[in-house]
Write a structure and sequence with these properties.
about 375 residues; alpha+beta; seven-stranded antiparallel beta sheet; four-stranded mixed beta sheet; 9 helices; globular
């Protein structure tokens, strides 16, 4: 019996800096991908409970161990799956959760949509109630099409989509560039540079990030340990610029609300990712009728100047006809291995374990 949780991260007045491969420190994105969250969380878990507990936690995950020899360690079940983080907005007593719009069109989506196609494609994230109706309920409606058509010429057009917050995703946060000065230790020469920081709303409304967590079995002790490790991560900060106080958050660990419970248990013909996903056993058959985008992932190893090996993963919103699973991938760089291929300290893993939701899509 699986056990679901919804976890909210409230950053309050603390800014955040979430980098991405190929983007300099001047730029930032507004959320954290599942693989980065997993790595930061496991590192926090190790600091709190020690190396042996981490090894015990990771031993049941399927792993891709050696890219040179394609060595794989298979497991029958995955004990823990997490989604990427996504935006939520708390407006008085109403919480609006945003989910990535699947790449495939919802059922009842019109064949001829040239007038509002650009408006539709700009909607990268949908409020939960619209996402559920489009991809698990009645689907796209004539009223939705009429409202999108009207928005082509009138950005303030009223309708169900606007009322639900479909066009208000960017109101949850602001991205600012903060000037900083780097001083050379030898010459005392100065260099001006800018750091991009995200500030979530905290005055008229409370905005932040949330993610879904799925345990394959009910394990109360593991849940308590992971919650404690996440609280520690919240005190230390998530992302970059932590020495400046960025990335600190408060954790709200919740049972899955009824609306979400219906979504994760719904029936569907396809599966859409709400996490990144990587697997060594992808076949042509698996990719049949799929629609996907690729996300290149890299980054630094914590407390070092060493980069992890790069990895190309399926991005959130990708759609597959079969249930995706995924593996942990050993991305330990050569600098952290001996000449015999042994680890100098411990393996470095990146999570390609997927979390997906069932959906119905338009027939093609």
């Amino acid at each position: 019996m699986s056990n679901w949780k919804l976890v909210k991260l409230n950053f309050g007045r603390n800014p955040v800096h979430f980098g991405r491969l190929g983007i300099g420190i001047e730029e930032t994105i507004e959320r954290v991908y599942s693989d980065s969250l997993f790595s930061a969380w496991v590192s926090s878990y190790a600091r709190l409970f020690g190396k042996n507990k981490v090894e015990e936690l990771l031993k049941d995950f399927p792993k891709y161990l050696n890219q040179e020899s394609s060595q794989v360690e298979e497991k029958d079940s995955i004990p823990l799956k997490i989604s990427s983080t996504f935006i939520y907005r708390q407006i008085e007593d109403k919480t609006v959760y945003y989910l990535p719009r699947p790449i495939k069109s919802p059922i009842n989506y019109p064949k001829e949509d040239l007038k509002f196609l650009k408006t539709y494609k700009k909607i990268k994230y949908l409020p939960l109630e619209i996402w559920q109706r489009w991809y698990q309920g009645k689907g796209f409606s004539d009223k939705d099409g009429a409202e999108l058509n009207e928005r082509v010429t009138d950005k303030e057009a009223e309708g169900e989509l606007k009322t639900a917050g479909t066009f208000d995703y960017s109101k949850a946060f602001k991205i600012n560039k903060h000037p900083k000065i780097n001083v050379d230790r030898i010459t005392a020469a100065t260099n001006l540079y800018y750091t991009g920081l995200v500030q979530f709303q905290w005055e008229q409304e409370t905005s932040g990030l949330y993610f879904l967590l799925n345990f394959s079995q009910v394990k109360s002790n593991l849940e308590k340990e992971l919650e404690a490790a996440l609280n520690l991560l919240g005190e230390e900060g998530l992302g970059g610029e932590r020495s400046s106080g960025a990335g600190r958050f408060k954790v709200e660990w919740l049972e899955l609300p009824e609306t979400w419970n219906k979504i994760v248990k719904a029936s569907g013909t396809h599966h859409t990712l709400i996490s990144l996903f990587w697997d060594s056993s992808i076949t042509e058959e698996f990719l049949q009728h799929a629609a996907y985008e690729i996300q290149e992932c890299g980054g630094w190893i914590a407390q070092s100047n060493i980069r992890r090996q790069k990895l190309r993963m399926f991005a959130e919103g990708s759609v597959f006809s079969q249930q995706p699973q995924g593996k942990l991938v050993d991305v330990t760089p050569a600098e952290l291995k001996t000449t015999d291929g042994e680890y100098k300290f411990h393996p470095i893993y990146r999570s390609g374990i997927s979390l997906a939701l069932p959906i119905k899509i338009k027939d093609t």
